[in-house]
Design goal:
Layout lengths: L4 H8 L3 E11 L3 E4 L2 H8 L5 E10 L1 E6 L7 E4 L3 E4 L5 E4 L26 E6 L2 E2 L13 E10 L6 H5 L4 E3 L1 H4 L4 H15 L4 H23 L7 H6 L1 H12 L7 H7 L4 H12 L3 H19 L4 H7 L5 H12 L3 H6 L4 H7 L1
Parallel strand pairs: 1-8
Antiparallel strand pairs: 1-10, 2-7, 3-6, 3-10, 4-5, 4-7, 6-11, 8-9
Length: 347
């Protein structure tokens, strides 16, 4: 495993992206997304959690969590906004505008995945026109590309727990020469051209977009911030986390980890717990279960082999720890996530 903690976690939680919507708006317009848990089966089957993102190509709009007291966020060209915790939200030409209640509500940002991606949603007068039907360029006031990111929430996703409900990165922060701005325009162009391989390209670029936004968020954290992202930014806690991720199967103790990062046992315990939210050895146990879940799902290794691979000398001890965190024994969990014939041979 590399020393890049963010990359390690993104791989372990199976981040995958997809760009679905190319939204063109003419005032007054609005488009709304339902709670992620409600639409996940239709939008990205197989994912445990869904994050929606929006990037403004041209114009400006407002974004807000539905029925929330927090003020709406003003978005301008090259801005990107994410809703990491899956909250229902709305984009609109002015704050407070919602799609019409009752009847056919077509200005949705969470309809089932269409056959061809991305597809255009033109919105005017708070109603959506037929899909794929573009507005005349002279009438488009705001142009937004929208996508989804799927990832695992369990057994253990420290990144997801550390992200806020709304994550907004301005175009000014990204800079005019940022590849993110180029990506937004590329995504808009792909919605028109529909060239071979465009879906795969946009999927990977969506994942890159997420990583870039998170990196910008880490860089903006105040000195007194807490959470996993603050932890990886801290020289002591970040070093400890790097060792646990690099060598998760080692027989770690708090004393040994403290020696490895050249601090006292009590100092490491206190600082790690304050920033990350749990003691080092508990974090290690949870991270081992995340790695084990990936091995159970993706390999044919036996439960005993997986237990050894993540640092457990006894299969029984591993099984107890896995069931305590996940709620199911390793074999049962594997059977529910893999084809039956594969699970049967894996033991």
């Amino acid at each position: 495993m590399s020393g890049d903690l963010l990359s390690d976690v993104l791989r372990a939680v199976r981040l995958r992206g997809a760009l679905y919507f190319d939204v063109q708006g003419r005032s007054p317009w609005t488009a709304e997304a339902s709670p992620a848990a409600q639409v996940l089966p239709n939008v990205m089957p197989g994912a445990e959690h869904l994050i929606e993102f929006h990037g403004v190509v041209d114009g400006a709009c407002w974004a807000a969590i539905v029925d929330d007291d927090a003020p709406p966020v003003r978005l301008q060209a090259r801005d990107v906004i994410l809703f990491p915790q899956g909250d229902p939200h709305v984009l609109s030409s002015r704050p407070g505008l919602r799609p019409p209640q009752g009847g056919t509500r077509r200005s949705r940002l969470d309809e089932p995945r269409p056959e061809h991606l991305p597809y255009r949603l033109s919105v005017l007068g708070a109603h959506a026109t037929e899909r794929h039907l573009p507005l005349p360029r002279s009438e488009v006031e705001t142009h937004v590309v929208c996508g989804f990111l799927g990832l695992d929430a369990r057994p253990f996703n420290p990144l997801l727990a550390a992200l806020p409900r709304v994550l907004h990165v301005s175009g000014a922060t990204l800079g005019e020469d940022s590849w993110v701005a180029a990506f937004l325009r590329t995504a808009a162009a792909e919605s028109e051209a529909r060239r071979p391989g465009s879906e795969a390209v946009l999927d990977r670029m969506s994942e890159m977009l997420f990583a870039e936004v998170v990196r910008r968020y880490i860089a903006s954290l105040p000195e007194d911030a807490t959470g996993w992202l603050a932890g990886i930014h801290d020289p002591v806690v970040g070093a400890a986390l790097a060792l646990l991720h690099e060598r998760p199967a080692d027989d770690w103790t708090i004393e040994g980890l403290a020696r490895a990062v050249a601090v006292s046992r009590s100092g490491l315990h206190e600082r790690f717990t304050t920033l990350v939210g749990q003691p080092p050895m508990q974090y290690l146990s949870h991270w081992r279960m995340q790695l084990a879940a990936g091995l159970l799902r993706d390999t044919d290794a036996t439960v005993a082999e997986i237990a050894a691979a993540v640092g457990y000398g006894a299969e029984a001890a591993f099984s107890r720890a896995f069931k305590r965190l996940v709620g199911a024994a390793p074999g049962t969990w594997r059977t529910g996530r893999r084809p039956s014939e594969v699970a049967a041979t894996a033991g």
